[in-house]
């Protein structure tokens, strides 16, 4: 599969051959959904908690006599039916994450990338190096790509400091190291910009 290599001014500077087994597989919506569930579950804190009977303040002494008061017998003022008592069957600290095997993760990533390629929303960029750290200059260049939101995927040491500074003030733009690519970001962002070096690194990892 051939794809043009562009510069940040949207001009073609060459072409690249993409691996069909990585960037050209079929759509797998169920697997993509499972991967996003996996990501969301993993990011949950799980720190919600209520106090049990052993943790609330109070005494274990009987609050009143067993007989003669007309009330139901009680052994403590800590049960849920008392004001200030424990919460019955309340949430406790837990880990919400679940496992997703490596093959499923790879397939989901390949499917997400393939979907974006088919929609023509992936741009291979020769380099993210720019001459100036001025936001206005970069913003004007990127307008030609007509994006609603954009994710820039860069290789190791491939993110120019000027680009980092200039892009930080542009809304709905994020940068991500190719080692951290994930389905949620690929699906969420409208356009994906990948630097040329990252393509070979991503292909090697997902083959």
Q: What tags apply to this protein structure?
A:
2 domains, 14% strand, 6 strands, 207 residues, alpha/beta
Can you give a write-up of this model?
The structure is a single chain. Helix 2 (29-43) packs across helix 3 (102-118) and helix 4 crosses helix 5 (161-167). This protein has two domains: 2-44 and 97-206, Ribosomal Protein L4, Chain: A (3-Layer(aba) Sandwich), CATH 3.40.1370.10; 47-95, no CATH class. Helix content is 33%, strand content 14%. The model has no long low-confidence stretch (mean pLDDT 93). It is of the alpha/beta class and 207 residues long. The chain has helices spanning 20-23, 29-43, 102-118, 135-142, 161-167, 183-188, 196-206, and strands at residues 2-6, 12-17, 122-125, 150-154, 173-177, 191-195. It has a six-stranded mixed sheet with strand order 2-1-3-6-4-5.
CATH architecture designation of the largest domain: 3-Layer(aba) Sandwich
How many strand elements?
6
Give the domain tally. 2
Global shape: elongated
CATH superfamily of the largest domain: Ribosomal protein L4/L1
Strands in their spatial order, largest beta sheet: 2-1-3-6-4-5
Radius of gyration: 27 Å
Helix fraction by DSSP (H/I, runs of at least 4): 25-40%
Count of alpha/pi helices: 7
User: How far from one another are the termini?
Assistant: 15 Å
Let me know the largest β-sheet: 6 strands, mixed
- Helix vs. strand class: alpha/beta
List the helices and strands and how they pair.
Blueprint lengths: L1 E5 L5 E6 L2 H4 L5 H15 L58 H17 L3 E4 L9 H8 L7 E5 L6 H7 L5 E5 L5 H6 L2 E5 H11 L1
Parallel strand pairs: 1-3, 3-6, 4-5, 4-6
Antiparallel strand pairs: 1-2
Helix pairs in contact: 2-3, 4-5
């Amino acid at each position: 599969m051939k794809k043009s290599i562009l510069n940040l001014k949207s001009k073609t500077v060459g072409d690249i051959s993409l691996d069909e087994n990585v960037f050209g597989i079929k759509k797998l919506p169920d697997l993509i959904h499972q991967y996003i569930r996996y990501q969301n579950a993993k990011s949950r804190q799980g720190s919600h908690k209520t106090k049990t009977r052993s943790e609330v303040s109070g005494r274990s002494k009987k609050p009143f006599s067993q007989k003669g008061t007309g009330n139901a017998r009680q052994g403590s003022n800590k049960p849920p039916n008392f004001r200030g008592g424990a919460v019955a069957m309340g949430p406790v600290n837990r880990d919400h994450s679940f496992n997703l095997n490596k093959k499923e993760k790879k397939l989901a990533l390949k499917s997400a990338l393939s979907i974006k390629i088919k929609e023509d929303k992936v741009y291979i960029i020769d380099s993210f190096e720019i001459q100036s750290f001025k936001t206005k200059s970069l913003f004007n260049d990127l307008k030609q790509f007509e994006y609603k939101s954009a994710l820039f995927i860069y290789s190791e040491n491939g993110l120019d400091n000027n680009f980092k500074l200039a892009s930080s003030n542009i809304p709905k733009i994020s940068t991500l190291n190719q080692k951290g690519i994930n389905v949620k970001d690929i699906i969420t962002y409208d356009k994906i910009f990948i630097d040329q070096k990252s393509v070979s690194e991503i292909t090697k990892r997902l083959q």
